[in-house]
Write a structure and sequence with these properties.
- The structure is a single chain.
- By secondary structure, the protein is an alpha+beta fold.
- It folds into three domains: 117 residues, Uridine Diphospho-n-acetylenolpyruvylglucosamine Reductase, domain 2, CATH 3.30.43; 124 residues, Uridine Diphospho-n-acetylenolpyruvylglucosamine Reductase, domain 3 (2-Layer Sandwich); 212 residues, Vanillyl-alcohol Oxidase, Chain A, domain 3, CATH 3.40.462.
- 28% of the residues lie in helices and 23% in strands.
- The protein has 15 helices and 18 strands.
- The chain has a seven-stranded antiparallel sheet with strand order 15-12-14-13-17-18-16. Strands 5-6-10-8-9 form a five-stranded antiparallel sheet.
- Helix 9 packs antiparallel against helix 10 and helix 12 packs antiparallel against helix 13.
- The radius of gyration is 23 Å and the shape is globular.
- Bound molecules: flavin-adenine dinucleotide.
- Flavin-adenine dinucleotide binds next to strand 3, helix 6 and strand 10.
- This is FAD-binding protein.
- Keywords: FAD, Flavoprotein, Oxidoreductase, Signal.
- Belongs to the oxygen-dependent FAD-linked oxidoreductase family.
Length: 484
């Protein structure tokens, strides 16, 4: 796509009338040394935000605040697939780097760019067909939109617990959530997606059409092949659930071990996260579990009885309620913060030496103004009904996804943050021998060595072939993207 062909498509011609004041300085065409933003603005049904726009900084900000200074030159707030297409073609015509943005929750700030941010967050409609339970989502829908649309029908998909996270990023990289053991990963419920490619074509991808790209859209991660403008999911019915949050402060190694034993033999109806946290200003470590059981309080009590026999929790909340009320108990908003998360898949159980290492490292945490957490999310169940090569999400057949999260704030001096980063690296490296060299592509980690192996394993070669056929010029790229 050249500048001339962009103009010939007509997409670039219809500007001039009714441009907002902050854009009028460049409304008469290309400003020397800067790309013709007015031409792009005129081609959009949505709006083009430039740095002078009052909303610009807020929309540009990523979830991970350490990357907030990477500002784009402009943000195309797309209202339609045509807007996405025009933005993709315009960027190439004027050699402006592009990036897709949905929820902005990339852990590594990979939906920031020094060029054009193609923001689909206004394409967030979710419609459910009550007869079939099929849900159609715009490419910019967030978990919060899924919650609101599914609740009236008593149906769900496997969603995340942070309401602000974008479904695009979530599903394209796999998607873990408390429903995954009973119903599979988010990407396992995906039936179809539409994607705008670098050459401007918009393709339907499903098992029947462009099935290789559909395979890749279930686990490769966002930002690799094009910009997804819509997702179709098969939802499932949800009834009453028992939700729980329990915490312990004593005998942590024994409690950890007992919880792990319970979790590894639990029914698929259990969704659970275990965390051990060192918090600024708190005297010791706290171990907690959070999750849901598609079952009764009595069934949960029987699962937890062996753990209670080891040590009674210092705090506990257990309640039974309808599914979507339960999600209000479990969910978080997902507001921006300073954070670095490093993951490792666990193929088996964690040995006593692994548990001792986790506790020892957290006790040696250098400390920030916020917290450091080691956690695992229980896997297995429906995730394992597919083979690792059946979708691009290669990490099936694991018992857990573990991660270490380091959080700090703007008042932490740089030297302290650096000391903490060294600690995080050492801890992450030490855990490899107890876990695996595989990491979750949705917990994308700019510090990960050999990341293509870590995210894709044996699926990498096929992903590269697909990349070569759908994005041969490598238009969609970021520091850890799939190479051509
Ligand atoms: C607070 C928090 C909670 C989380 N909880 C969970 C969880 O419960 N389960 C889980 O699996 N993961 C979770 N994650 C990880 C999350 O899935 C990833 O960070 C995901 O990539 C975020 O998607 P996004 O659309 O919000 O982010 P963005 O930053 O907008 O996008 C992420 C990547 O996808 C690309 N992209 C964005 N939109 C599109 C599109 N429409 N088409 C193609 N590419 C696109 C971007 O360019 C970028 O490379 C969480 C992350 C955070 C920060």
């Amino acid at each position: 796509m050249t500048r001339r062909t962009f103009l010939r498509t007509g997409a670039g011609l219809a500007f001039a009338a009714g441009l907002p004041g902050w854009l009028s300085g460049c409304a008469s065409g290309r400003v020397a040394g800067s790309p013709p933003w007015a031409e792009l603005a005129a081609s959009l049904q949505g709006t083009l935000l430039l740095p002078q726009s009052p909303d610009f900084r807020q929309v540009a900000a990523p979830w991970a605040l350490q990357y907030a200074s990477r500002l784009p030159q402009a943000i195309a707030m797309c209202a339609s697939e045509a807007d996405v297409r025009n933005s993709v073609l315009w960027s190439q015509a004027y050699e402006v780097p592009l990036v897709a943005r949905s929820g902005g929750h990339s852990y590594a700030g990979y939906s920031t760019t020094p060029g054009l941010m193609i923001n689909v967050s206004q394409m967030h409609a979710v419609e459910i067909d009550p007869a079939t339970g099929v849900a159609r989502l715009g490419g910019g829908a967030r978990n919060r939109n899924v919650y609101a649309a599914c609740r009236p029908y008593g149906r769900a998909v496997t969603h995340g617990r942070c309401k602000e996270v974008g479904v695009a990023g979530l599903v394209l990289g796999g998607g873990i959530g408390f429903n995954m053991r009973a119903h599979g990963l988010t990407c396992d419920g995906l039936k179809e997606t539409r994607i705008v490619l670098a050459d401007g074509r918009a393709l339907n991808c499903s098992e029947r059409e462009n099935s290789d790209l559909f395979w890749a859209c279930r686990g490769a991660g966002g930002g690799n092949f094009g910009i997804n403008t819509g997702f179709t999911f098969q939802t499932f019915e949800v009834g009453n659930y028992t939700v729980f949050e329990l915490a312990w402060n004593d005998r942590l190694a024994e409690v950890f071990d007992a919880l792990q034993t319970m979790a590894l033999s639990a029914p698929d109806t259990l969704g659970m996260k275990l965390s051990v946290v060192a918090r600024a200003g708190a005297p010791g470590l706290t171990l907690s579990i959070l999750g849901q059981l598609a079952g009764t309080r009595e069934q949960l009590a029987s699962l937890l009885a062996p753990v209670h026999a080891v040590q009674r929790p210092s705090k506990q909340t257990v309640e039974s309620m309808a599914y979507w009320d339960a999600q209000e108990f479990l969910s978080e908003e997902g507001y921006p913060e300073y954070s670095h998360e490093r993951s490792r898949f666990v193929p088996d159980s964690l040995s006593p030496a692994a548990i001792a290492t986790i506790l020892e490292e957290l006790r040696a945490w250098p400390g920030t103004n916020v917290a450091a957490t080691w956690k695992f999310f229980l896997m297995g169940g429906a995730i394992d009904r597919l083979a690792p090569t059946q979708t691009a999400f290669v990490h099936r057949r694991n018992t857990m996804i573990s991660s270490i999260e380091l959080e700090w704030n703007a008042q932490d001096p740089q030297a302290r943050v650096e000391r903490n980063q060294l600690w995080l690296s050492r801890f992450h490296d030490r855990m490899e021998r107890y876990t695996s060299s595989f990491c979750y592509q949705n917990f994308i980690d700019p510090a990960q060595r050999d990341y293509l192996h870590a995210y894709y394993g044996e699926n990498l070669a096929r992903l590269r072939e697909i990349k070569r056929s759908y994005d041969p010029k490598n238009v969609f790229r970021y520091p850890q993207s799939i190479p051509v």
